[in-house]
Write a structure and sequence with these properties.
Length: 309
């Protein structure tokens, strides 16, 4: 190593260290603002409450909720040749050509789903479907830091499963019956009201009414906004994924893409599930900070003793 290299290294290292310190300071400043503190608390609460429940719920829903929804739809269109779920994917994602044909072939026709999905629903409900409600209950209970659960809750889990599947089937049927104009005029208000009601009722009953509806409202509104927005913008990422994976893996690629999308939606629903307790805790913390600053005992101010010294 030459003398010039030594000098260059000695000069460069403080510059690099100073850049890292500036970036760290900028991040620390941003995170110590009200919105930054809310985001950090929300992030921590999600990981503390979810414990990878999103993966389990997504798999359980793929194996049980989807077949149940196909049964409900097939009961209305048992004689039809068009699968409403496949047609919904084709229309909403604007799929064409081989990808559209592959999606329709993957999920079959309504008449073929009527019997096969009925038998599948019975088995999958007993094996996986009834566990979805319990997973959601555990996440809500950990988020609110309360203890719930009893043998009688199996009835709640069963009700939650059928309501979940019926709501999914209702969305498919409504979209198939409405035109493009009617879809926006009717489905958007219906989605806002129905989704908010669903995400209010779900934790309210799974937690045995220990948490009031008023306290659950922020999370329900957040779930309505986030899940609805993700569904609206899904053609930007789900359509290309179906096309690419369909060409590479055929029907398996279609199924894996749908399961992946379901995993995203379930994870977002869990993120929103923990929002309400975080929101109220954050508001209380910010009020406490404001009161402390008004009294002059802000944590950022030095104590009088240190100033005298």
């Amino acid at each position: 190593m030459t003398a010039d290299d030594s000098v260059g290294g000695a000069v460069g290292e403080p510059e690099e260290h100073g850049r890292v310190e500036r970036i760290t300071g900028w991040l620390r400043t941003r995170s110590d603002r009200p919105v930054g503190r809310l985001g950090l608390q929300w992030f921590q609460a999600y990981f503390a409450a979810s414990r990878n429940s999103g993966c389990a719920i997504a798999i359980y829903s793929s194996l049980s909720v989807l077949p149940a929804a196909l049964v409900f739809v097939a009961a209305l269109y048992a004689a039809g040749d068009v699968n409403l779920f496949a047609q919904h994917l084709v229309d909403h994602l604007s799929l064409t050509g081989n990808t559209a044909s592959l999606v329709q072939a993957t999920f079959g026709s309504a008449s073929s789903n009527a019997l096969a999905a009925s038998l599948t629903m019975i088995v999958t409900f007993l094996l996986w479907g009834i566990g979805i409600g319990q997973l959601y209950q555990d996440v809500y209970a950990r988020a609110w830091r309360i203890s719930v659960g009893s043998a009688a809750d199996q009835v709640l889990y069963a009700i939650f499963f059928f309501v979940f599947a019926a709501a999914f089937a209702l969305v498919l049927v409504a979209q198939s019956e409405l035109g493009d104009t009617g879809r926006w005029l009717v489905l958007v208000p219906a989605w806002i009201l129905g989704s908010a009601a669903f995400w209010l009722a779900t934790p309210h009953f799974l937690l045995h009414r220990k948490i009031s509806v008023r306290k659950l409202l922020p999370g329900a509104l957040m779930a309505t906004l986030v899940l609805g927005g993700t569904a609206i913008f899904s053609p930007l990422f789900l359509g290309p994924a179906l096309t690419t994976n369909g060409k590479a893996f055929g029907s398996l690629g279609i199924v894996l893409s749908v399961v992946g999308y379901l995993f995203v939606m379930v994870t977002l629903s869990l993120v929103c599930a923990v929002f309400s307790p975080v929101w109220f805790a954050w508001r209380a913390d910010e009020k406490s900070r404001a009161d402390g600053e008004n009294r002059g005992d802000s944590p950022e101010a030095e104590p009088p003793a240190a100033l005298d010294a």
